[in-house]
Amino acid sequence: MIQNYLRMAFRIFIRNKAFTAINVLGLSIGISASLIIFLIVHYEFSYDKFVSNSDQVYRVVMDLKFNGNEGHSAAVPAPLSNAIQQEVSGVEVTVPLMQFQGDATAKVSIQREKTTEPVILKKQAGIIFTNSQYFSLLPFQWLAGSPNNALKNPFTVVLTESRARQYFPSENLPDILGKEIKYNEDFTATVSGIVQDLNETTSFEAVEFISFATIAQTHLQDNFMMQVWNDWMAYSQVYVKLAPNNQAANVENQLVALFKKYNKDANKDKGNSMRFKLQLLSDLHFNKDYSGFNQRIIPKSVLYSLFAVAAFLLLLACINFINLTTANAARRAKEIGIRKTMGSSRKQLIIQFLGETFLLTSVAALISFSLAPALLTLFADFIPEGLQVQSLRQPHVFLFLFLLTLLVSFLSGLYPAFVLSGYQPIKVLKAQSLTSGNETKQVWIRKTLTVSQFAIAQIFVVATLIVSKQINYSLHTELGFNKEGIITFSLPRDTVTTHRQQLLNEINAISAVDLASTGFLAPIEEGPAFTNISFAPKPEIKDPVQIRWGDPNYIHVYKIKLLAGRNILASDSIKEFLINATYAKLLGFQNPEEAIGQPLLFGEKKVPIVGVMQDFHEQSMHASITPLILGGNNGDIFHVRLKPNISGADNWQQAIREIQKAYHQIYPCEDFGYRFVDETVANFYQTERRTARLLSWATGLSVLISCLGLLGLVMFTINTRTKEIGIRKILGASVNSIAAMLSQDFIKLVVLANILAWPIVWYGMHRWLQDFVYRIEMNWWIFVLAGVAALLLALVTVSFQAIKAALANPVDALRNE
To answer: In this structure, which of 362, 409, 515, 722 has its CB flanked by the most CB atoms within 10 Å?
Structure first.
């Protein structure tokens, strides 16, 4: 029986090669997209699932409000962890997590056996300061040392196996205990333990753990602000594990009281407040409001959008299959009638048709699985680093592919199976099946499915245009400062001041350099830098504002305009301030000139305002422009504006090589790393750019699948109207009139699809754009442009076959009938 079903299925496939190829191609596209998206989504949702009792593990975060504007922070004041251990009940484990300042890396010096000079690794990442409770929070396996006292004492460090092998490649693991490691010329720590690498999908990526008690025994006590409650760094985080049967709300209330105790200004009014909050471990990887330093965040909305893309592409493929199979039903009508006359039951026919669908879907699934490694490479921008080709060999992947094959077979094959098996033998053999009301119903179903296909494709097209337009606006709109051709780089730690000025002079002397300055952060940065400052005449006006500083050339490098007053003067400490227009208005000055000479209270010192700058964007278009001050002070970050590139020359790269040469003459043992400011701006919109690229692929695939389905329907329609076309030509119909007759019904369907799609995509894009404070308008012409493009594509698809049919010899058409 099964052999008979297979034999018949292969005969049907060979007899209808074009329809079979279209079906397999459409299903392969849908299944391939679903497989890749499943791998991505499964990987992302597997973050930190290995942590036991994860529903009791939280990160302490902060909810902030400045002048009515809400903010969030994954960083917390440094003394919080000690306060929790001493003053908060219901917490079983408290884990501080502190990283080195700057780029969170450290210069590591190691003295190995059989070497006279220490091995120096300049930028080691993955180093944190923490306590021994870190290892009770995460299930590390100990290879050497004891978890109870490994980080109990200051100046001790625990290494993962991979880091231990890197530092001491020729030593046995137990022999590494007691070895010394020097960090940043600041202190030396002794290896007190070695743990196995987690090798899990996790937000905890540290591989080197220095005892938290070390901070209090070094100058890091001041650098990390271990006694400061009204300020915090991006490198300071705290995790807690609640005691059994304890509620997060109870601990949060205690944390709120703790903040009020140590920071009197934390909640001065409804518009300005700060409070601690507990963020569940399972939320860390998905909540962009609490993005930690160098933490990779994937909002769940993005993953759900991926699910939607996969579902839509699968739906399009299933619609194709249903359309083509039911449209091709007439060719199999006599077969069905004869089989029923010979005794086949409707159940057997349904099994036969579902089996054919399952066979086609299985072939498509095999093709999709074979293409998966290449697709993982093609979509590398969307693929997490931890997701490798080896992931395809996991049992859950095969299970997913099998279940997906069953689902697609069921969705694609069920309706055609019932339609085909429902033909009545007598009517079929009398050639009445195609004139029945049931066939008319099938035509309307096919038309409805075709409209659905093109509506989905149109949604993708319009969404792609709007997302691309918003990204282009974000990248190229006027930011209030110049970002083109400017590079920034930092001096090594513990830089001598005279060396800074020497290097600045040498860089300014380079012919391809327009102007160089030293200071703090660039005008726009990925992470805000706030300071507490108040207006001296009215101390109650005390607000956190963003801070920058630099020498007098800073505003000239970035071409920041002054609205009133003058520029800051050269100084080795902050003695004057420029403020932006937003801060001037916040202080109550309607006219920028009114702010000149007014004092700000910076710490215990009164600092005058000497100028008002025009507003510029210091963050992405997602956020509003905030109050900002610029102080006159030298800094260790260089800002260099290069002269415009000359046509046919590469003077930017030449200038960078000369800057690097000057840098290495002063710091011969240090690495030189730089970045362009416009790249910083572009990095703000990585998620949106990936979304745009994903939408572009989804648009292309959806349009391809829709056109394949339309092509199949056109081919079927022409085949069923061959005799009509021949008679019309004999009676004098022109090629154009025949092509127009065959095309107009399909064009109407595409027009209807556009009309149905536009309200849906308008609503979705309107919601998406709300995430941007500064955004584009959704112009009507975007929708019209997408609609015209869809019409032209459909017209080309239909016209090609229609003209081919109209040009055919009518005698051959009538003879074939």
So the answer is: 409
